[in-house]
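Ticket #4471: structure output looks truncated?

Reporter: J.K.
Steps to reproduce: submitted the chain below (340 residues) through the standard prediction queue, then opened the result file.
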Amino acid sequence: MTDVLAAVLRSRWLRYAIFLGVLALVPAVFTRVPFYTMSVGVLMAIQAIAALGLIPLTGHAGQISLGQAAFFAISGYTSALLTTRWHTNALLAMVAGMALSAAVAYLVGTFIFRAQGQYLVLATLSFGLLVSYLANQLPLTGAADGIPGIPALAPFGFTISGDVDMYYLVALVLLFAVIVVDALLRSPVGKALTALGDSPVATAAAGVSIAGLRRNAFTLAAALSALAGSLYAHWSTYMDPGQAGILSSVQLLIIATIGGQRLVWGAPVGAFVVITFSEASKTLIPKVIPQATGNYEIVVYGIALIVILLFLPRGVGGGLIGLAGRLARAVRGREATAVD
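Returned output as attached by the reporter:
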């Protein structure tokens, strides 16, 4: 038992294999357990991809962004427009959406990272509100009606027609994205991001361009959110201004925080916890409070966030890893006592 836990904690490839196994089990579990359906599984994986970019940006570099949903929407609308109006291949449209979002993020990051602290949060919030307003007003984006009829993805001639097929696709994309972000955080660039979050002054004194580092982390977060946005557009076959709303950006930040901002596993764990709470609240709250109306799952997000910050400051993912470490040490100590 001790050896297994120690091996899991040490070997990242073993952790990837366990994560792959968990992802593979989702269809078997989600079709048999209340609150869950395969569409919920697809949504969890897409939200996890979108929130993953906040791990290096917010968890390590210490930069809070409330504009992630804007990049999600920019890429989703790009895919929608290219495929419905100009009949572009869906995969090419996704690449175009990611490239446009990354370019916008790089340009925006050049200016907004002159601000720090609460001013940076307000700058990203303003950018998100601007994109949301434009999506809600422009005829190009369908204004409040959005863009319907977005074609499904068809990689290598195989059309992704159902939630199960789409789940397997987004699960593989999520696994690949986790491996890439984990490799980045282990690289010198990732260590520089961590140093930047811990002490910007010391990092700048070491000769590192902290503005460039922040801008690159912001661009990476935007690219991952954009990838999720295009996947969402081709899965739901519909894009509307609500995807660019401030509530969507807040939800992504809550997902990363609840899962664990310092851990690459924080995004998938957080997506599972937050969307589970959301689905449970939609089912249970009307039974307990029949008069309840509106977006009451926001209250559940707030309560969950407060509880996690009070009792699990490293997030659910950090709490699970800490528990596994304590369990391994306890078993090892018991075995040593038995030998003595």
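Triage note (M.O.): checked the attachment and the full token line is present. The first strand starts at residue 147 and ends at 148.
Status: closed, working as intended.
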